[in-house]
Design a protein that fits this description.
Layout: E1 4-9, H1 13-24, E2 29-35, H2 38-48, E3 52-55, H3 64-74, E4 79-84, H4 89-97, E5 102-105, H5 110-121, H6 129-140, H7 159-169, H8 174-181, H9 185-199, H10 204-213
Parallel strand pairs: 1-2, 1-3, 3-4, 4-5
Helix pairs in contact: 2-3, 7-10, 8-9
Length: 217
């Protein structure tokens, strides 16, 4: 019996099927399920009982960040590895803060991917050198959106919140804003709720009207 029960989550059929073939060839790994979006992934964690999830980020219906959040809330013992194409620091920080044990790029060699899966299954964590370097640079030199450097606008809004408010005023949905800013939809929803609270409004229409009156957008 194979020790590592793995769930593959990616919206591209070719990637899922290719990884399934490669990973099932290893004597320690069994792919117990595959999903093309985060919503199905959460359902399969309950049904297939994997102990490791290999999770993409950008997927329809529910992205990998939101799926990771739900999996870690309900099955904290399941190890989650984010496997994505992009070097997105905000996603790295968010995924790790939610409890993900690893963050790998899809350009990784299959041998290194298998080694990484085994390391994380044994209780380790994994972050590729290039992402670790970017993360350290981010910590040493915070962007204008970090709490230390972020200017405060009217109503106590941060620059990031002003940016999201401007996109709301253009009619973009939360999902569209998430894609534009490379954030998870859940993160955008949290920002929007904070904006409403700070501006003391109940919905998008009130927020946009108030922002226009105060020349914020």
């Amino acid at each position: 019996m194979k020790d590592i029960k793995l769930l593959l989550v990616d919206d591209q059929d070719l990637i899922r099927e290719s990884l399934q073939i490669i990973l099932n060839m290893d004597p320690e790994i069994e792919v117990v399920g595959m999903a093309d979006n985060g919503q199905i992934a959460v359902e399969l964690v309950d049904q297939a009982k994997p102990n490791v999830v290999l999770m993409d980020i950008h997927m329809p219906k529910m992205n990998g960040i939101d799926a990771t959040r739900l999996i870690k809330q309900h099955w904290p013992g399941v190890r989650v590895i984010i496997l994505t194409t992009f070097q997105e620091i905000e996603h790295v920080v968010e995924a790790l803060s939610l409890g993900a044990e690893g963050y790998l790029l899809k350009a990784i060699h299959p041998h290194d991917l298998i080694s990484g899966i085994k390391l994380i299954h044994r209780g380790g964590t994994l972050l590729p050198q290039e992402l670790a370097k970017l993360l350290m640079e981010q910590l040493k030199n915070p962007t204008p959106f970090s709490k230390e450097k972020s200017p405060v606008f009217k109503y106590g809004l941060s620059e990031r919140e002003i940016q999201i408010l401007q996109l709301l005023a253009k009619g973009l949905s939360n999902r569209m804003i998430a894609e534009r800013l490379f954030l998870s939809e859940g993160t955008v929803k949290n920002y929007v709720s904070t904006i409403y609270s700070k501006m003391e409004v109940k919905d998008r229409l009130q927020a946009v009207r108030k922002a226009q009156e105060d020349d914020l957008v």
